[in-house]
Each structure stands twice: as structure tokens, then as C-alpha cells.
Amino acid sequence: MTLSEHLREWLGAWPPSRAFEVVGTVRRAQPGWDGNVHPALGVGSPEGAVLSVAPEHAAAVTAAARGAVITDVTGLREVPALVGYGTRAWFTATYRWSTGPAALPDAGVWVPAGQAPEWLHPFGGEALVALDQETGVHLAGVGVKRHDRFGHELSVVTAPAARGRGLARRLVAQAARRVLDEGAVPTYMHATGNLASAAVAVAAGFPDRGWTAFGVTER
């Protein structure tokens, strides 16, 4: 179980063979974790980046991305239209993973996603939720995007009234331990300017290694 195995499965190639590599893979024309098509996805490290698209779009995207670097996505903003999703936007995010989650105490219980708050329903499988012990009200939760057998991405939300208690970091660390136990790598993405999410990630054991995720938005 390695991050490289996940990225090869998810993107179609890893590590990159050049500073910015465009690859064609049928994965970008197939439904993803949520049942929707994710037509362009990429990950960049300090050593290089891979952007994956459906095979029929690889040549056009390669031409548009010629000379691209992750810190300047000006040319890449053409990609949504080139892959047939011109109404969607281009995104960039901080990309993290962990092989040693923080040793924080558990904060939640695993339940079927359909029995969790509505925002967790699309994740399927089981979701991790923190409950108020007196009222049973949901305070926070983690959904798992099961991209493939090697990589599972964690998403966390805390109810406004429950913020500031450290629930998010404890839930993320707890979920990451389970993902590792299942033989996959836990990953975590957030908008670069989302300092609150960045703080949760660091506290849960997901350091910033200078990696970036990018691509066409989900909707």
C-alpha cells in the first residue's frame, strides 16, 4: 500500500515523467466516488505533476498545458471547455496525505452514511460522526471518498455551535487510522486559503509537503 499506487490508479500515471505530464485514462470518463464524472484531475509535487483526462482529450489538453507549472494555472483554465465541461470551473487545492495520523483520542462512531447527517449521504459506506452525548445531536462528521482501493480522501464538517472543541482534528485522525488499517492511504484536500482546514490537517497528522491538487470542479 503506497501513495504512488493510489495515484497511478486514480490518475493513470505516477510519478510524472516530466515537469508537467498530461495522461489519457478511461477513469476520467467513468463515474467517480460520488457517481459523477470528474473529467480532469491532477496532482503536483515539487518534482512534477500529472494531469489526467479522458484519452480523446489528451492531445488538446497537452497543447494547452505546454509550459504549464502548478503555481501559474493561467493556461489551464481552458481545460474545462477542452474536456467538454465548459460550464464548470478550474480548481487548485492543497493536497495532503498521512502514514502516521496524530495520536488523538477518538471522537466519533462509525455509522452507515445513510443514517448520518444529510451531507454525508453521498459518500456511501460508513461515515464517522461525533454526537452530543446528552441530546444525540450530530456535532461533526467525516465522509470518506473511496477513490480506489489504494486511496481514500477524508472530508470533515463541524456544526457551527461545536467548533473550537478540537472535534475535527480528532475525527480526521480517527478516520485516517481506520483507512490505514484497511490497507489504503488517507488523503486530505482543502482550498489553499482555508487556514482553519489547514490547521485541522496539521493537527491530525497531515503535514503540508508542498503538493497541490487541481482539475475541473465537481459541478
Automatic annotation (TrEMBL):
Domain of life according to the entry: Bacteria
Xref: Pfam families: Acetyltransf_1
The N-acetyltransferase domain, residue ranges: 74-219
SUPFAM superfamilies per record: Acyl-CoA N-acyltransferases (Nat)
InterPro entries: Acyl_CoA_acyltransferase, GNAT_dom
Membrane-traversing stretches: none
Name of the protein this chain belongs to: GNAT family N-acetyltransferase
Organism this protein belongs to: Nonomuraea typhae
